[in-house]
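Give me structure tokens for this 166-residue protein.
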Amino acid sequence: MINMPEIYEYRLGYRLPEITRMHGEIERLPLPTRTMLNTNLVLDELISNIIHYSDVSSKGREIHVCKEREMHTYEKPETHIFGKREIHVCLEIHDKHLDIMVIDEGIEFDPLQVPDPDLDSPIHERPIGGLGIFIVRKLVSRMRYERRDGRNRLAVRMEMGDSAQL
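Here you go.
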């Protein structure tokens, strides 16, 4: 018999303290310690990128909560009654893996198109940026991006236990 996944949904504001709040929520989930730590690292990078680089000058736009199991079965989103910009994070805990969906309404950004950073040059010669997405790629077993209806939708899968680590 296949167990149904446990589903958790969170709405975050476009403020850096929300990352700390998200860490607290992740620490309460029934996850192995390594998976919990890696999840916090992955979400820290993804959410901080959204906060810093997603066209924060446009106010009143909404980011919608995901209500899906697969990217192609997106249901009509809920909207936030105050019209605040929000980042929505959905986590599905399965027996052997964790699926994470992050949805935002910022400018289009496909992290799959970001080239790997130069790790061979001396550190003082390397351009700034790109290490966070690189680390995320190392921690997840699958990463899918889609831009639909003005929303960035990033789905990642993390294997439970020690199979995905730095």
